[in-house]
Amino acid sequence: MTIETTKVDRENLLYRLGFLTRRWRQVLDSAFQSLGVTDAAWRPLLHLHHMGDGIRQKDLAASLGIEGPTLTRILDQLIVKRLIDRSEDASDRRAKLLALSPQGRAMVTQITAKVATLEHDLLSEFSDLEIDQMTLFVERLEKRLQETRSRLKG
Amino acid sequence: MTIETTKVDRENLLYRLGFLTRRWRQVLDSAFQSLGVTDAAWRPLLHLHHMGDGIRQKDLAASLGIEGPTLTRILDQLIVKRLIDRSEDASDRRAKLLALSPQGRAMVTQITAKVATLEHDLLSEFSDLEIDQMTLFVERLEKRLQETRSRLKG
DNA sequence: GAAAAATAGATAGCATACTATCTATTATAT
DNA sequence: ATATAATAGATAGTATGCTATCTATTTTTC
Predict the structure, then answer these.
(1) Tens digits of per-residue pLDDT, A23-81?
(2) Percentage of residues in chain A with pLDDT exceeding 70?
(3) ipTM entry
(4) Lowest mean pLDDT among A137-151, B64-78, B91-105
(5) How large is the angle between the packed helices A13-32 and A39-51, nearest 10 degrees?
(6) Where is the HTH marR-type domain positioned along the sequence (chains A, B) (predicted)?
(7) Cα dist. B96→B41, B57, B82, B92, B130 in Å?
(8) Predicted pLDDT of residue A152
(9) Does pTM top 0.90 for this prediction?
(10) Which of chain C's bases lie under 7 Å from a protein CB?
(11) Residue A88 class from Cβ within 10 Å (0-12 exposed, 13-18 middle, 19+ buried)?
(12) What pLDDT does residue B116 have?
């Protein structure tokens, strides 16, 4: 009697995550093309909306998990498009304060709806339990990666 | 009586995968700096080793899941470093055939060992069951993303 | 209170992904 | 047989991540 086993290729787990990320980015880029914002550009909008107006660039960058220079460039685009306002901080003249413009707020509404639909659609075939497991797994792996990284650097 | 529940933020699952990928790439870049190859460069070496000498660029690109132009540029580097040989295909003069050089083979040995160690270390706190679940999840998600992508494009 | 260190942000340069397009070939169709 | 289509690979241009470094401030230290 032969037992059918699902062959899982464990070797490639981390590798495949990269794949997944690229595909997800491509999907988002296609979906948002009509709105005129790219994957990298809409995230700052949502995070700014979530954190509230008046935050500093460095805090937004930290929230996004990207470095300052990366955010600077993306903000430049968003400011040209009048979606975000960047103003001086009177109490600390090194800093800049960020706020959503009215157009930015309207864009956030559109984006939120679209992302929710896409994510819901993509995850619809998975059970809540599976999604929870996956999310926890990702969190743990993330921590472990950060440890490993600082170990290699230090 | 209050029940302690683990708060899982499902909203961010796909977003966090991007995070994870960046971190993993950073870890690999740090680890391979001494070998003189980057994250993007060692993968073609391993895939070529796995597929065997004499394959074409387009097949290697497909195996890696990247586009032709991206591979072309990475191959340029690997050929300059004498890790890969690129020769003409006599039967089809459009095509180029790829093969590992002796140095390339030696590099593959080093890389294989290093990647295995890193992955094993990173996944050591997870059970086999968890890793299998995760891998299957990633596979399913990948398929679903591909469907969604072609739907959006077509 | 002046010198040194830390912080916020910008700029420059590199790596790697993409798409669009070019050249050179090979395959197909009329 | 020739014209068209398809394929392999290269090149060019764009986007987004990084690190290193610069300026302008603020904070800390002595």
Answers:
(1) 888 888 888 888 888 889 999 999 999 999 999 999 999 999 999 999 999 999 999 99
(2) 91
(3) 0.82
(4) A137-151
(5) 90
(6) 10-143
(7) 18, 7, 16, 8, 42
(8) 67
(9) no
(10) 7-13, 15-20, 24-27
(11) exposed
(12) 87
Q: What CA–CA distance (Å, rounded) separates A92 from A26?
A: 39
pLDDT at B1 over 90: no
Q: What is the CATH number of domain A14-115?
A: 1.10.10.10
Using a 7 A cutoff on CB, list residues near strand C.
Answer: A 22, 26, 56-59, 68-69, 72-73, 75-76, 86, 89, 92, 94-96; B 38-41, 65-70, 73-74, 77, 92-94
Fold of the B15-123 domain:
Arc Repressor Mutant, subunit A (1.10.10)
Please name the residues in contact with A6: beta carbons below 8 A apart, sequence gap of 6 or more.
B132, B136
Strands B84-88 and B55-56: unpaired
Residues A139, A144: Cα–Cα separation, whole Å: 9
